[in-house]
């Protein structure tokens, strides 16, 4: 099945050599400023919208994000659960059917290959979404783990292309409810459904999830045939043209500032192969049921990760920083104690905050540094004042019972 994904990618390739999502024609029609993102031609911003306007629209109404560049996986078979629990620290027995959870793919040393969302549909059927920028690496990693540890006949893993549409914002349910008879008020954050959305003929996979801190959904819409692609494109356009007072298309620029305000990690920034989940302040991804080493409870890098948890040996933690107006912190900027001399960490990502004002950043700093204490960030060869702040910067508005 991996070949089928490669065939589709080739078919979607643009004249520039970059891949195109099924929603690409809409991005061009809407005046999207297109950039190369993980080998795809993607909109970073749309004509007539500033970054701040796009960001604030999502916080107050609904933003539509094309995230079809993400890689979608189906994993099934007799050993599907064992396979997933070998490469991630998740406990699938604790995950109810038709529910999803954030997790991480782990290498043999406990480093993070990628972060992912895993959905359980049956005890032997799972759906997983991984990052666009890690496509080749993830496929190779999963293939190698299967070959080295499992009978290939007991686990079926295939990747597939399709339209993946994120509908994010406080009015997301109000908007999407107009297109389905399913009562969306009964679907809470972390839950999923297969349902019908008018006028799409294929069954759509809906997850109440997102990457903004706001309420919302992610829709996986089959888009292999030309008919399916056209239906997905028409649905996207209908949302925008019939409900312009609620919905706007939003590009990659606002997606990043929204996730940063929500304290969410970005692979390649906060997460890397040389950092364990513990070192990334994600110990909560390892449930108590997986914190005892045993043959039935092992996962990649478990010995190292569980030792870090038990011994509290981590010297740094991921935390927030706030600074006044001026140049915003950027990846790699060094962080110093208030004296401006003692280096205590480094910035992983930063930007202006449209919601809070001023600048914000995530950083890895000495775990002894206290929230509320003053610090310095070296930006453009100048030390600038900042304050250590808890995450998230903006409280999440997730739809929960």
Automatic annotation (TrEMBL):
Transmembrane residue ranges: none
Gene Ontology molecular function terms on file: aminomethyltransferase activity; transaminase activity
Chemical reaction(s) catalysed: N(6)-[(R)-S(8)-aminomethyldihydrolipoyl]-L-lysyl-[protein] + (6S)-5,6,7,8-tetrahydrofolate = N(6)-[(R)-dihydrolipoyl]-L-lysyl-[protein] + (6R)-5,10-methylene-5,6,7,8-tetrahydrofolate + NH4(+)
Subcellular location per the Swiss-Prot or TrEMBL entry: Mitochondrion
Entry annotated with the keyword Heme: no
GCVT N-terminal domain sequence ranges: 23-288
Subunit field text: The glycine cleavage system is composed of four proteins: P, T, L and H.
Similarity comment: family membership: Belongs to the GcvT family.
Protein name, as recorded: Aminomethyltransferase
Organism listed in the record: Candida oxycetoniae
């Amino acid at each position: 099945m991996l070949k089928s994904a490669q065939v589709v990618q080739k078919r979607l390739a643009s004249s520039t050599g970059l891949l195109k999502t099924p929603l690409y024609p809409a991005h061009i029609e809407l005046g999207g400023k297109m950039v190369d993102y993980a080998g795809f031609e993607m909109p970073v911003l749309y004509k007539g919208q500033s970054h701040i306007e796009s960001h604030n629209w999502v916080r107050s109404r609904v933003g539509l994000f094309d995230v079809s560049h993400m890689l979608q996986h189906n994993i099934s078979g007799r050993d599907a659960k064992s396979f997933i629990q070998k490469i991630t620290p998740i406990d699938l027995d604790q995950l109810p059917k038709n529910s999803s959870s954030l997790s991480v793919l782990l290498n043999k040393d406990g480093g993070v290959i990628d972060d992912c969302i895993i959905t359980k549909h049956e005890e032997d059927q799972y759906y997983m979404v991984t990052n666009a920028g890690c496509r080749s690496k993830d496929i190779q990693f999963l293939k190698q783990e299967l070959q080295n540890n499992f009978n290939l006949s007991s686990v079926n893993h295939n990747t597939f292309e399709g339209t993946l549409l994120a509908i994010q914002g406080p009015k997301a349910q109000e908007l999407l409810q107009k297109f389905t008879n399913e009562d969306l008020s009964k679907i809470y954050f972390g839950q999923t459904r297969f349902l019908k959305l008018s006028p799409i003929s294929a069954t759509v996979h809906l997850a109440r999830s997102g990457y903004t801190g706001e309420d919302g959904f992610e829709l996986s819409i089959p888009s292999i045939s030309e008919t399916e692609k056209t239906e997905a494109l028409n649905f996207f356009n209908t949302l925008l043209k019939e409900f312009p007072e609620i919905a706007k298309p939003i590009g990659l620029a606002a997606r990043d500032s929204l996730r940063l305000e929500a304290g969410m990690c970005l692979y390649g920034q906060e997460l890397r192969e040389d950092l364990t989940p513990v070192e990334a302040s994600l110990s909560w991804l390892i449930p108590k049921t997986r914190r005892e080493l045993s043959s039935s409870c092992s996962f990649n890098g478990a010995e190292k990760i569980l030792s870090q948890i038990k011994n509290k040996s981590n010297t740094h933690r991921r935390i927030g920083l706030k600074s006044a107006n001026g140049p915003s912190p950027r990846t790699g900027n060094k962080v110093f104690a208030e004296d401006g001399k003692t280096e205590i960490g480094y910035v992983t990502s930063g930007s202006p905050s449209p919601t809070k004002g001023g600048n914000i950043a995530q950083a890895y700093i000495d775990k002894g540094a206290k929230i509320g204490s003053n610090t310095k960030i070296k930006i453009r060869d100048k030390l600038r004042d900042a304050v250590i702040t808890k995450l998230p910067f903006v409280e999440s508005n997730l739809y929960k019972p």
